[in-house]
Sequence to fold (217 residues):
Amino acid sequence: MNLFTFRRLSLILCAFLLVAGCAPTKTESPDSGQNQDASANNNDVSALNWRVPDFTYTNQEGKPFGLKDLQGKFWLADFIFTRCPNVCPPMTANMAKVQQELKKAGVQVELVSFSVDPEYDKPEVLKAYAEKHGADFSNWHLLTGYSLEEITKVTKDTFKAQIAHQKGTSPDVPLLVTHPTQFYLIDGTGKVVRFYNGLQPDAAQIAKDVASLNKGK
Fold:
């Protein structure tokens, strides 16, 4: 094996490790019972009765925030961590764009981002990270203040997705986490009703879904 081939294989291996370590997990299909990517068209999970358990965590201002604050409101949830080397920055930027577009359309939806690295992601860390990506905190709540075990259980039981930590590949990438990359739409009762691809979200579709669900109340 010559030096060029060795270097090329090393780069490919490093790229694979980065993707595998912070890769999207899959969400259960409402029709087949099998797993499917969030980019699939059939994203209606309202019949599956996925319910968010009662919680009170800590937001980016260091204040308590919980399910009771979301009662009667539609909200869009995702899972991120500030040390994420790949998918989280575009997800967070996408959430900011969705936030802006929904506000322009007059659609009232709260946004909630759960950290999957709660020990590191203190309130001030989350706030600085979100500000960097254009967040408007008037209706966006970034949450921490729980154990890794707790958020892992909530993610598995409610959102049917996995969280898994592993050591990073370098000092610049100290941590890799497998976590969902979907945006989940939750209704005012705490039931998950839709999910979307967080790497390619369609704000217009989210607005249509909220309008449709509001009519069906």
